[in-house]
Write a structure and sequence with these properties.
Length: about 575
């Protein structure tokens, strides 16, 4: 994009609401919306029709939200958060506490030759034109600045708070892209959040610490065989805090038959490297691959939790979709492959959900692919709802994070209980600290990692790690407070103090946080200082404790050696 085009994005490209002309209509609509005890979409439509303009035009939700924001600014009064929530088009978008912004890299050759992967001209490998994020990326010619700015503007138009942005980079294997392109891509995304250009990635990161739209998380996708110590260094320099890792299967024979190009051993090593560096790991798992059976998939899924080297933080379940012009399609044509029917798949996914531990979040149960692309098999876009209905009939329950989030419900901080779930991995002891309501809903959590061997990065030597901290409920502006809302209720500070206490008693002298660039000011207020790409603070612990400090290293294998030169 040229600079003139850039300036059009800085202007937010949103036409203001004509408050002088339509103030009376706006105020009347808002008063009716506020007075209704339980507003349904149909009820809102009736209100809007009653207040149609003389030419019959009806205001959209985004127009009402824009007008209401202008009205509050003009009159110098705060926004009514409940009124904003009622006018939001999709309030669930930001109920997890942050605004997700998905962007996509341009098409680039992938080192893999997966049997199930589609290749469509003009799209990154494995993506299809009908997928929402792919279509948005193509509309903006895969320009990262344009994609980011447009998505922020769209969320704002629909009433969402976008002060805290989780940037989700999609589009093939990130680690296979040229390093110069990776750096340019992330810098341009940050420039869209900052509202100004930067001469370097480091400058863009520095500016984002005080920007209007802060980057509170950065996620990329890659393959297990591309994760090395050097790659971990690069990811951290870019500001990556979460890695989506395409394991797909935990059976070497199934991986081989589907020409995946990596082994289970490489998956285990990749997860160990990422976890030791404090990165969150989102595993992609695919049932119904060539050579799999429902019984085999159940056993495969169980390995995710029984194998200490795995145990992911988040999970995306992508049932294999039979797509045209793929190797799997040719196997189906000759009768060597058969997709599961709906009943088989629903039963399998329901059973899988019951096996997920409380420290993991299931983000997806099916990929967002248009049914017109699927040749055979389950095509229902609402598969998650079908699984939930089946589980309700059977009396099954899912303990995953997503199913326990407080979401829009109010809480009383005084009633919250702190619970710790501990579990070992092959290189760390993990502690999942969580604040829950008396009913068991999750208000906030922190992932504390206690390394049992040398980490791959020098600045983490001797450190316990906070790999993630999140407080749930609707995303609020950075300085906003709302009675009964978990965000800005002090839960984050309480979780950090408890993490420091537990780490100190376990024998660690320092606590490090894998902080996204936009969260650095928050951690400075809690006594952390920047060391390399992490925020770190010293720890103290009581010598009177009856529990002796636990050693934070054990020589079960040789330390992972960092590259000769680290990130700047």
């Amino acid at each position: 994009m040229n600079r003139a085009h850039d300036r059009s994005w800085w202007a937010t490209h949103v036409r203001p609401f004509d408050l002088e002309r339509y103030r009376e209509h706006l105020v009347a609509i808002l008063e009716e919306v506020r007075e209704v005890s339980r507003l349904t979409p149909e009820g809102l439509s009736r209100i809007l029709r009653r207040h149609a303009l003389p030419d019959g035009t009806i205001f959209s939700k985004s127009q009402l939200l824009r007008g209401y924001r202008q009205l509050c600014r003009q009159e110098g009064r705060p926004l009514d958060r409940e009124l904003v929530r009622r006018l939001q088009i999709k309030p669930t978008r930001t109920l997890s506490g942050v605004a997700p912004v998905a962007v996509m890299t341009r098409p680039y050759p992938c080192p893999g030759e997966c049997l199930f992967c589609p290749t469509v001209e003009g799209m990154p490998t494995s993506y299809l034109p009908g997928e929402p994020s792919a279509q948005r990326a193509a509309d903006h010619n895969f320009d990262p600045l344009a994609q980011t700015a447009a998505r922020i503007a769209a969320l704002r138009r629909t009433g969402h708070s976008v002060d805290k942005i989780e940037l989700i980079v999609q589009g093939g294997s990130w680690s296979a892209y040229p390093e110069a392109y990776q750096e340019w891509f992330v810098r341009r995304c940050l420039e869209a959040m900052n509202g100004t250009e930067a001469a370097s990635l480091e400058e863009a990161q520095q500016r984002n610490e005080e920007a209007r739209y802060r980057n509170v998380g950065l996620s990329v996708e890659t393959r297990p065989d591309l994760v090395t110590v050097e790659e971990v260094w690069r990811l951290r320099r870019l500001g990556v805090t979460k890695v989506q890792l395409g394991l797909q299967s935990l059976d070497d024979e199934v991986l081989s038959r589907n020409r995946r190009g990596h082994t289970v051993a490489e998956s285990r090593r990749a997860m160990r490297l990422l976890r030791l560096a404090g990165l969150k790991v989102v595993v992609h798992w695919m049932p119904n691959l060539l050579g799999a059976t429902p019984e085999g998939d159940r056993a495969d899924f169980l390995r995710l939790w029984q194998d200490p080297a795995l145990r992911p933080d988040e999970l995306k379940i992508y049932p294999t979709a039979l797509l045209p012009n793929t190797g799997l399609y040719r196997e189906w044509q000759r009768g060597a492959y058969r997709p599961y029917d709906e009943e088989t798949l629903v039963h399998l996914l329901a059973e899988c959900k019951t096996l997920v531990p409380p420290y993991c979040r299931i983000n997806r149960l099916m990929r967002d692919i248009s049914t017109e692309w699927i040749v055979a098999g389950v095509k229902k876009p609402n598969l998650r709802q079908e699984v939930q209905r089946y589980m309700a009939r059977m009396g099954f329950a899912c303990r995953c994070i997503r199913c326990r989030e407080v979401r829009a419900a109010g809480i009383d901080p005084a009633e919250l209980r702190l619970k710790t779930v501990s579990y070992p991995t092959d290189a760390t002891e993990e502690r999942f600290l969580q604040y829950v309501t008396p009913e068991g809903a999750l208000a906030g959590f922190l992932r504390l990692s206690l390394p049992q061997e040398e980490p791959p990065l020098e600045e983490l030597r001797g450190c316990a790690l906070v790999r993630e901290m999140r407080v749930y409920g609707p995303a609020l502006d950075l300085e906003a407070r709302q009675d009964g809302a978990p965000q800005h209720a002090g839960l984050g500070g309480r979780l950090l103090e408890e993490a420091g206490r537990q780490a100190g008693l376990a024998g660690y002298r320092r606590l490090a946080v894998i902080a996204a660039v936009g969260t650095r000011p928050y951690y400075r207020r809690h006594g952390f200082e920047r060391e390399g790409t992490y925020m770190v603070r010293p720890l103290t612990w009581s010598t009177d404790s009856t529990t002796p400090p636990r050693p934070h290293q054990r020589a079960r294998r040789a330390p992972l050696e960092p590259p000769e030169s680290g990130p700047a």
